[in-house]
Structure formats: C-alpha cells, structure tokens
C-alpha cells in the first residue's frame, strides 16, 4: 500500500510539473457578465493543449428551501478557441473547438460543468471564456479552471470591444459596406447567409468590408464582426443561444430580458469598453432618439464624425465615446420587448429606442457615413477611394398579399364583431410597417444609379432578403425547431429564387480586398447539431407546463435556493 501511494504521489507531481492551471472565481450580479482571453505567456508556444472547466458553485444564503418565484439561478457560459488569424480553431478530427451552456446550474456531477478540451493549438492561438448571469435578481457564483501544458495568462481588458492581444495595423478604408437589418430572432437569417458565403468563398467575411452597419439585432452581429473580430461561426452560436435565452424563456418581463441581453454583451465586449478603437474596420449602429416629442435617428460610430465641427452641431457627434454595451442595448430597445435605454451622451441625457423605428434597413446611413469617411481620409492625404461594393442583408419578409377593395370593405365591416382579431391584425400590420425595408432598398438603388450604370450596379450592389412563410417571421421566436426551419427556408429561397443575385454576390466577395489565403475549410458551427442536454426526468415537460401556467417557477423547477 505504501508503495502504491508513493507511486501515485510521484505521478501526480510529474503531471503537476508538466501542466499549469489558471483559475479564477467570483460572482456575477444580475444583468452583468465577465469574460477572459487566455494566451500562452510564451508567444511562440505551439502545439499546446488546454482543458476548460466552468462550474456554477453554491453560495451560502438564508431563506426558504424552495422559492415560489424562482430567481432562475443559472448562468450562461461560452468557451471557444481561436487560432492566430482569429478563425475558430478545430481539433485533429476537424471538430470546431466551441462549447456553450445556456443554463449552467449548481451541480456536483459531470453534467454540472461546461467542459472544452482544446488540443493541437498553434502559436498565437487563444482561449475565450464568457460567463453571464441569467438571474432576475441577486448574484451567481462561478469557478473557471483552465489546465494547460503551456503557462497561460489573461489578456488586458478589451479596448474598443476586442478581447485579445493588440490587433495588427490594418489599412483604413470606406469603399466596401456591409449593412444588416434588424428583425429580432430573425437575425439568424443574415448569419446563416454569411456562414454559407464563407463556406463557398473560403474567405473571411469580416476581411471583405471596411464599414459595418446594423440596426437592432443587425447591430449585434455587425459589432461582433467589426469590433470583437469574432468568426461568423462563434457569432452564430452566441446569437442562437441569446435568442433562446431571451425569447425561449417564458414569463420574462422586458426589464429581465434586457438584463440577460446586457449580461451577455458585457461578457463579449467588456463592461467598460467604448466604441472608439484604432482598428481599420468602422462600425455604425442605428438607434432612435426619443428624448423629444419627435423621433429622430441617433447614430453610434466607432470613429469621430470626419466632417463635424464646432459650427455643425450633431446630437450624436460624440457617440464614439459611449460604451459598446450602451450602443447595442439602445439599438435593440424595441418596445414592448425591451425598455428604453437611458444614459448621458456628452453630458446630455438621452432616451433611446430600437433603431427600427427610423431605419430597420440602415444601408442609406451606412452609405452616408462611408462617403463622409472617404472625404475625410482624402483630406488627410490618404489615397483616393471610390465606392466599390455594397451588400445589404435582410432578415426575411412575408409574401405580398393581393387584396381587392371589396375584400377590404368586407374586412372592415367584419372587424366590429371580431375586435380581438382585428386588434391582432393591426398590431401585426404595425410591426410589418416598422420592419419594412423595401422603401430603403428602392431609395438606395436609385441613389447608386448615379454612381454605377447598367450591369455595374447589379455587380456592386447586392440586396438579399428571403421571402418566408409569415408563420416563421415572429420577432420573439425562441423555438429551436422554428429557428432551424427559418435558416433553411431563407437559404433555400436565396439559392433557388435569387440564384443570379446569389452568384453575383459570391463573385464580388471572391474578388476585391482581402488577404490571399491558401484554401481552408472554415469551421462553421452546425447549429442543428446540438449536444444532448443532461438527462431529464419524464415529468420535466409537465413541470415546465405547470410552472408556465402558474408562474411558480421555483416550486416546480425542483431547484433549491442557494
């Protein structure tokens, strides 16, 4: 027995000497999140491995054993590995190194932790770990342990929304524009399009554009690409989890939805990170200023307006000093799903709402800002640029309905006894009006005819918006099966009914700027293949139904108060 114990001690000491462990623990308050980027202390370290384990740990608290109105005591966790080019790393079998848990609870079993085994990481690779609170109130304790055969150290706090080592210098430009519409849960559609474009062109989308613009959900995607410089695959996984956490959980008030959204945004971009950075990519986020009786657009920029001076007053001239989180929360503050975002901009209090109220399709704002940037760059002696490419992606639209005047009259007369149905139709019509993007598309197309003539317009301006069954176009859809069908229908429509436009977009992205790279199979996360959750009891569907009907989530969840 003594010999066996001595041998075990020797083996343990050898393993400890070979591996190092980076650990951290703490608590996240409701509405907040934290994140880390871990890199080897030796910048030249290659072929290193790491194992990430994140647990939700219990804290001592007084109170009843069970809470009738549950605090939903769990956290959201996302972990992934990026290579030196900030592409999603893959293991030896070609599997993407990314893992997430939407609801990580206190549990001592193996299923009670998020685990990511990352092997074969090369020089310049990094591990990213995000933890965000899902609670409605209070705090949640967590513990992160990363065991690796390379000594790891965390990167500095993010600057301009980017985690990791200092970004390499990149030539600034404003000739290629990517614009992303708003649309709530339908934001999965442009992400699916971008992922398929990367798969077919073998090129990073974020390297093909200089100016990124987004409204509402499009702003989150644009910021993930332009500021955080995340791969499309990671933004896909993040956004899918985000939609299901916010809209898939029943009984959440607008304030609690906003808390969950803010917590994840803080984990990704940093709680104190501001929009302004020194990278070449520029970001434009559209929100609505409701501080006065008249709604007007409010633009958040990652750069100072190049043509603004003391004599030219702009209410958003200093918006580049705002936090990334504030800008994205303002752009997504869509009533009635989220409350208005209130904070000071340059010392003036502002009340901001979803940008879709003024421009669900932000392409015209993106073009105006890109034009101002090109003029500003020219004044500083930079080489003269011309607008080269404009890509605008929608989140899906319902088929047009043809109605006769007689049908309209019958509908009006029949609305009196069917007031509930009429009210629902009115609300749906109002939502469709606010998310209408065809008017902006027509305006942009007419404007660009002055720049590009004939076939050149079709080769340089690309507007892709799939026509989808209206039953799949809810802004607050949280069902995973419906979201999967939505992505599939959108891609099928674009490749079948918009085949010419689709091929023209692929040709445009295969050409133009972007580092020439050897053929590389990009690891696009298949969101339809989701890791099986921990085994649940056969009564779980019944308990969830009872909790939803009665509102007593804590009582029926069988989770003890911590």
Task: Outline the structure in words.
This protein is of the alpha+beta class and 562 residues long. The protein is built from 16 helices and 17 strands. The chain has helices spanning 2-18, 188-201, 217-226, 232-247, 254-269, 324-331, 356-359, 363-379, 405-414, 419-434, 438-448, 455-460, 480-496, 499-510, 540-550, 553-557; strands at residues 20-29, 33-40, 48-57, 75-82, 98-104, 113-121, 126-133, 139-148, 152-154, 176-180, 211-215, 282-289, 296-301, 341-345, 348-354, 389-393, 461-464. The strands form 3 sheets. Strands 10, 11, 12, 13, 14, 15, 16 and 17 form an 8-stranded mixed β-sheet that branches. Strands 5-4-7-2-9 form a 5-stranded antiparallel β-sheet. Helix 5 packs antiparallel against helix 6 (324-331). It is globular and about 65 Å long. It starts with a helix and ends in a 5-residue tail after the last helix.
| Percent of residues in helices | 25-40%
Beta strand %: 15-25%
Can you summarize the main beta sheet? 8 strands, mixed
| Mean pLDDT, all residues | 81
- Counting DSSP E segments of at least 2 residues, the number of strands comes to 17
Characteristics:
5-stranded antiparallel sheet; 21% strand; disordered C terminus; 17 strands; alpha+beta; 562 residues
